[in-house]
Amino acid sequence: MKKTKPDTLSFIPFPSAHGEAIKPHDAYARLARRMVITSLFISLAPLLLVLAITLNRYDSTTREKIYNNLSAVVEHNRAEIDAFLKEKTSNLQSLILFSPPEVLQEPGVMESHLRRLRRVYGPVFEDIGLVSATTGILTSYAGPFRLGAADYSQAEWYLEFLQSNQTHAVSDVFLGLRGMPHFIIMVKAIDNNGKPWILRATIDFESFNTIVRNLRIGERGFVTILNRQGELQTRPLQDISPHTEVYQKLLNSPSGDALIFHQAKDKNGHNQIYVAGFLKNGEWMLISQQPESDAFSDLIRTRKMGIFLFMGCTLVIAFLATRFSRQLVHALQRKEAEKQMMNRQVIETGKLASIGELASGIAHEINNPVAIMVEEAGWIDDLLAEENPDQIKNMDEFRTSLNQIRTQGQRCKEITRKLLTFARKSESSNEALLINDMIREVLPLCEPRARYAQVSIETRLAPDLHRVMASRTEVQQVILNLANNAIDAMENEGGSLSFETVNHDDFLEILITDTGPGIPEANLKRIFDPFFTTKPVGKGTGLGLSICYGIIATMGGKLEVESMMGAGTTFRILLPAIREINVDEENSFHES
Amino acid sequence: MIKRKVLLTDDETGFVETLSKRLEKRDFRLAAAFSGDEALRVLAENPWVDVVILDVKMPGMDGIETLSRIKLEFPLVEVIMLTGHATVETAIDGMKKGAFDYLMKPCDIDILTAKVDEATARKKAHEEKIVSAKAMAIANQRGD
């Protein structure tokens, strides 16, 4: 590849996006991928670590808090229920203290006591009755049921209470004679005759139940009371089967004040947290249970939020990493391409230089033999002139041949002359030049040819053009060369040739445009190659543009070509401008 | 017409031989040399030489040096430099050092002849001036 067609007006042309791949494209893709992965890892790993640690810490503290909460609730309620039962018991105890059994047997006394109790404590006491501890017969009763002289001698609670040496007791829940679940509080008493009695009161199951039922934990947590046999002492909020393994396990734990924590799956497969504590001297057990999802709903929500946040961050980071990596790789690619371009230019210049050396060598070596050949031809010509033309059969042929030798010798001379121009090192002196003046000086040289080829010449020269440091003759040579090429291109059909100069920040631009037939794409690439020519054999040496390129390159500028078939060709010269200050200094120096 | 008397100096033997033959055909009186040293020697042996045609690029003593020596030893002899293109600057340099003119190889024989004529004419003019100056000097000495 030689020179690229410039697609932007910049001093150092960037390779176009569709330009040939300098390195395999997937190498860059691989690099980008690696960068993305690395940056993802670097940014996500600490994030993940922090998140994991935080969630873990949060998890454990939350769990601790929840357990503390649960135990507090259970502890509190256990105390509450114990206090309730104790209070009711002491109510009965005080009642029997002030109204001994013989008083209670008097008609109306029981009723008035029940009324008083209900008035003071609410409808907790359903009924009260006095049972003989010897016969088990209900002797006195106040309450809504018509129990008559009920015989409790076979009742479980009665027997149990008699056997125990306790002065008071609370029974488990049972159906009893009335066929409804209830439990009773009993107190032993001795009358004046030394006969033992039992004062029993039925606690309104519903009101007790309400106390326990109202103990709710969280949204779906609740509390139940079981006795040692695993029978429900309250009606729980949710249906539970107290004979399942979980409850048995809890009930089998050693009695004491300590709370028991347990976690297990319920029948629906949900994880439940159980906190249990014994009450009523270890006869009953208060069990609170709460689904884990409920207890840890906060924790789960936080965890979800953390994961969601992490996902969000990951997405954002991934996006940014991809974007930046791509940008970086793109920049890298561009830099690389730029470097390649520079290298190519250096190689190009080097190539021209070595061709130059070669050319000068060839020129010297060719020149002498050619000179001798031309002289020999001249000598033959001289000798022929002495002969009688009539005696020589092919006299005309000889003359034509000799002329040809002379002509071709001249052609060789022309080639070597241009080769040497091309090879010549820039020894001509540089000066601050106004390109506009150069163009004006060259124009008269092209005008006769242009007129002959019916080419009109226009100029659009920027006023106040920057000066350039260059050799006068070289600049003229370049302009003349390009102008002549343009006129050659338009020789057949005529057209217009325009010279334009444009000022830029630190460089200037010279445009030489023709309306000729244009240069085919294939030729554009080789147009600055030495010896590349499209002119007929003998007409051009193919060195003109090469020389121009070399001259502009040594001036630190650029020579570019743009062409469209059928529309014309533009040669663009970019030359570095010298700073105006320098010119002013120079002027003031001259003036002083 | 005065016979043109020329010394042809070039390291290219073929060139010298052929050009000599052609110039002799044109009624030149010729001497030939193939190096700078030889040119000086031939000049010393053949004082009739009016014009030296001197190739700029020669091995050993090159054209410019030879020119300086000729101008030093034979100031009246005119020198026409013969050059390839690479040495145009050298040829111009030579003219500053006293060469009469320069020609490019390969050169047209007629142009060469014309140049030789001009050079000869100048040399003759110089010589005449010297002769008349000498005559004047002698006349002055005689006190006329």
From TrEMBL, chain A:
EC identifiers of the protein: 2.7.13.3
Record Gene3D superfamilies: 1.10.287.130, Histidine kinase-like ATPase, C-terminal domain, PAS domain
Top-level lineage group: Bacteria
Topological relation to the membrane, as annotated: Multi-pass membrane protein
Enzyme class per UniProt: transferase
GO terms, molecular function: ATP binding; phosphorelay sensor kinase activity
Subcellular location, record wording: Cell membrane
Catalytic reactions on record: ATP + protein L-histidine = ADP + protein N-phospho-L-histidine
Pfam family, one: HATPase_c
Main location (coarse class): membrane
Transmembrane portions of the chain: 35-55, 307-325
Domain Histidine kinase per the UniProt entry, residue ranges: 361-579
Key words of the record: ATP-binding, Cell membrane, Kinase, Membrane, Nucleotide-binding, Phosphoprotein, Transferase, Transmembrane, Transmembrane helix, Two-component regulatory system
One Gene Ontology cellular component: plasma membrane
Stored PANTHER family: C4-DICARBOXYLATE TRANSPORT SENSOR PROTEIN DCTB (PTHR43065:SF46), SENSOR HISTIDINE KINASE (PTHR43065)
Protein name: histidine kinase
Organism: Desulfobotulus alkaliphilus
Organismal lineage: Bacteria, Pseudomonadati, Thermodesulfobacteriota, Desulfobacteria, Desulfobacterales
From TrEMBL, chain B:
Keywords attached to this entry: Coiled coil, DNA-binding, Phosphoprotein, Two-component regulatory system
Chain positions found as 4-aspartylphosphate: 55
UniProt xrefs under Gene3D superfamilies: 3.40.50.2300
Recorded GO CC terms: cytosol; protein-DNA complex
Coiled-coil regions, chain positions: 109-136
Molecular function in Gene Ontology: phosphorelay response regulator activity; transcription cis-regulatory region binding
Response regulatory domain mapped to chain residues: 5-120
Taxonomic superkingdom: Bacteria
Any GO BP: regulation of DNA-templated transcription
Full protein name: Response regulator receiver domain-containing protein
Organism whose genome encodes this protein: Desulfobotulus alkaliphilus
